């Protein structure tokens, strides 16, 4: 078990620079303080965002202070506080993201550019043939300082009580607990929502998990006298972990929404505004924007909490867990809530219009599915014809646009069970150093997972696909399916026989994932994006890490591949440890290759960047 502990500990450390990796200063007996100050500058180079060349796309900063105090042998008080944000809105370059459909382009298939860090050229009332160049832009600065004290400043504030006989431990406060060991894709590490605003899916898990107010109890069943009963069936060192989490969090992300009445910018790591297109004809859907409203459970629900349990034990020479979770979904289901007709403006700007007219969800579906979508699929739609459908015939009259209102509903429950197993394969020494690999496996089964449909039936009995399938009554656009996920992986300290000067091993971790959704045809991977879910999804990850120059030059590569969408992403880090124990310069490259909006990697295909950062840790 010692080898197993060493290997799994190495994996956790290599996964990224975590708060635990800092140096600490001892202030007095049983009281330590640690922290770090970090500033990064990310240069974006994706040609669709910068048009060639490069622009400053992100300037993340972090100030962290952590403390640990042990006033009694059985009591530990811990704190971890963050001040962080992004200077991009003040000092960044002109990044552009895909915006609303360009009504002046053939078939409405082109999209207006959306400037993420400056105002657009304006949104005039007309005329139609010559819309203003790049009319959409934002000066959104919500990422400048993530200042919510409870949600974003407190990362840990907890007290841990331990029984003198080590029968149990009880931790109360705000903190995180990690389940599972998979990299890049989470199967069992689902106790906490993720913050995707600064690094998307390739961030360090220790920094992306969102802490919650909770109670965690750990019970050593063997010390309670139940060890013999478990050993009778081959189980050793049984322990039970119980979680009570009254505070709710969802995944944090920002959609780069160009709609003037609801404009938001997440900058470099903002999720793209979805392509709006009629699946059948291929025509874009012009004059349509989106207003998004979050519908969440109560932030604190003592009667409707997240509940979790994990049974940990040793069996067959390895470590196993059985997991159960009753929580809330972290990503939304999209539901039609109505629309607003903007009379007097073709570019969805209610603040620059003659009048705005609210519509209910039934009327919205009737107009869009009964007239607008059929017209766009007629074969030769024109901007003037689309205006006529919206009730604005053009000419000397006013122009119109429509902002469809969608609820992002997070109120669905998550019901999941799972298991994991990790074993040092001592029977299989390999390589010139006869190192044994560590095998890992995870499994999860989620019941009644909600999905938006990619194909559905309108109130008129017609079948629609893609973006249009969201503009129907939620009773016809939402369904539920069970989902099964597997992961098998191997960790190995690699010595290369042809590398004569190799002084330390190359840590190597390979993982293969399969996600199965029975009866998963005609579902969306993640609304509001129109990409269909593959009933069987396969992914692979590869993690390589090696220290050169006596440990002073650390290189790490994490790769992710999506087999169904033939997409890949990579994160490469180089740490320069030449400046003592406190200063940590780093160069980090993040790159995605995927079709836009296709799968999880497709949502990040515009996030390519090179980040230069400097951290001072103590």
Tell me the major beta sheet.
Answer: 18 strands, antiparallel, barrel
Helical/strand content category: mainly beta
Number of domains: 1
Roughly what fraction of the amino acids lie in strands? Answer: 35-45%
- Superfamily at the CATH H level? Porin
What's the mean pLDDT score? 90
**Under the CATH scheme, which architecture would be assigned?**
Beta Barrel
Counted beta strands: 29
Percent helix, as a range, is: 10-25%
Distance between the termini: 32 Å
Helix/strand layout:
Layout: H1 2-14, E1 24-28, E2 31-44, H2 47-50, E3 55-58, E4 60-72, E5 75-86, H3 88-91, E6 96-101, E7 111-115, E8 136-137, H4 149-153, E9 154-162, E10 168-175, H5 205-208, E11 212-220, H6 222-231, E12 236-245, E13 288-295, E14 306-315, E15 318-328, E16 333-343, E17 355-359, H7 361-376, H8 383-389, E18 400-409, E19 413-424, E20 438-452, E21 455-457, E22 463-465, H9 474-477, E23 478-494, E24 506-516, E25 536-548, E26 553-562, E27 567-576, E28 583-593, H10 599-602, E29 609-617
Parallel strand pairs: 7-8, 13-18
Antiparallel strand pairs: 1-2, 2-3, 2-4, 2-29, 4-5, 5-9, 6-7, 9-10, 10-11, 11-12, 12-14, 14-15, 15-19, 16-17, 16-18, 19-20, 20-23, 21-22, 23-24, 24-25, 25-26, 26-27, 27-28, 28-29
Protein architecture, described:
The protein has an 18-stranded antiparallel β-barrel. The protein is 11% helix and 43% strand. A hairpin with a 5-residue loop joins strand 21 and strand 22 (463-465). The protein has one domain (2-87, 144-250, 297-332, 410-617): Porin, CATH 2.40.160.10. The two termini are 32 Å apart. The model is unreliable at 1-21 (pLDDT under 50). It is globular. It has helices at 2-14, 47-50, 88-91, 149-153, 205-208, 222-231, 361-376, 383-389, 474-477, 599-602; strands at 24-28, 31-44, 55-58, 60-72, 75-86, 96-101, 111-115, 136-137, 154-162, 168-175, 212-220, 236-245, 288-295, 306-315, 318-328, 333-343, 355-359, 400-409, 413-424, 438-452, 455-457, 463-465, 478-494, 506-516, 536-548, 553-562, 567-576, 583-593, 609-617. The protein is mostly beta strands.
């Amino acid at each position: 078990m010692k080898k197993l502990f060493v290997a799994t500990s190495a994996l956790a450390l290599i996964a990224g620079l975590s708060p635990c990796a800092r140096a600490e200063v001892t202030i007095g007996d049983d009281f330590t303080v640690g922290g770090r100050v970090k500033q990064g500058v990310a240069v974006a180079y994706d040609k669709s965002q910068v048009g060639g060349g490069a622009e400053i796309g992100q300037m993340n900063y972090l100030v962290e202070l952590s403390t640990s105090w042990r006033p009694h042998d059985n009591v530990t008080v811990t704190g971890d506080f963050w001040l962080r944000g992004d200077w991009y809105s003040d000092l960044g370059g002109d990044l552009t993201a895909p915006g609303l459909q360009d009504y002046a382009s053939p078939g409405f298939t082109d999209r207006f550019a959306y400037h993420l860090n400056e105002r657009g050229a304006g949104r005039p009332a007309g005329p139609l043939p010559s819309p203003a160049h790049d009319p959409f832009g934002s000066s959104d600065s919500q990422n400048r300082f993530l200042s919510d004290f409870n949600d974003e400043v407190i990362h840990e504030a907890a007290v841990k009580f331990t029984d003198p006989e080590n029968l149990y431990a009880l931790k109360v406060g705000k903190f995180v607990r990690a389940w599972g060991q998979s990299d890049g894709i989470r199967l069992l590490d689902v106790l906490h929502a993720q913050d995707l605003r600064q690094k998307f899916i390739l961030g360090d898990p220790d920094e992306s998990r969102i802490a919650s107010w909770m109670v965690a109890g750990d019970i050593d069943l063997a010390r309670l006298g139940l060890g013999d009963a478990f050993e009778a069936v081959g189980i050793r060192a049984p322990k039970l972990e119980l979680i009570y989490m009254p505070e709710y969090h969802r995944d944090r992300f920002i959609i780069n929404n160009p709609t003037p009445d609801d404009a938001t910018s997440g900058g470099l790591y903002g999720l793209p505004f979805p392509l709006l297109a009629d699946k059948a004809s291929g025509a874009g859907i012009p004059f349509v924007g989106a207003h998004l409203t979050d519908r969440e459970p109560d932030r604190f629900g003592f009667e409707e909490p997240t509940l979790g349990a994990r049974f940990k034990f040793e069996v067959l020479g390895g470590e196993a867990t059985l997991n159960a979770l009753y929580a809330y979904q972290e990503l939304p289901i999209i539901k039609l809530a109505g629309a607003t007709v903007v009379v007097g403006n073709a570019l969805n700007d209610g603040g620059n219009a003659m009048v705005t007219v609210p519509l209910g969800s039934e009327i919205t579906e009737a107009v869009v599915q009964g007239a607008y979508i059929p017209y766009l699929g007629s074969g030769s739609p024109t901007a003037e014809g689309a205006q006529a459908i919206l009730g604005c015939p053009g000419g000397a009259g006013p122009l119109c646009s429509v902002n469809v209102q969608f609820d992002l509903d997070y109120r669905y429950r998550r019901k999941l069970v799972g298991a994991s197993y990790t074993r040092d394969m001592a029977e299989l020494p390999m390589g010139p150093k006869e190192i044994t690999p560590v095998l890992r496996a995870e499994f999860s089964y989620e019941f009644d997972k909600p999905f938006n449909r990619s194909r559905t039936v309108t109130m008129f009995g017609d079948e629609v696909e893609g973006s249009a399938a969201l503009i129907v009554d939620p009773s016809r656009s939402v369904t539920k399916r069970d989902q099964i996920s597997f992961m098998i992986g191997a960790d190995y300290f690699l010595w290369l026989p042809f590398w004569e000067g190799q002084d330390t091993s190359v840590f190597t971790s390979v993982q293969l994932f399969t996600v199965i959704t029975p009866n998963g045809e005609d579902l969306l991977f993640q609304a509001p994006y129109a990409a269909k879910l593959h009933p069987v999804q396969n992914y692979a990850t590869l993690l390589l890490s090696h220290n050169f120059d006596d440990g002073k030059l650390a290189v790490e590569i994490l790769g992710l591949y999506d087999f169904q969408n033939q997409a890949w992403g990579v994160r490469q880090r180089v740490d320069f440890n030449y400046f003592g124990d406190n200063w940590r310069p780093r160069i980090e490259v993040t790159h995605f290759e995927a079709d836009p909006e296709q799968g999880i990697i497709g949502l990040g295909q515009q996030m390519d960047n090179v980040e230069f950062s400097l951290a001072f840790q103590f």
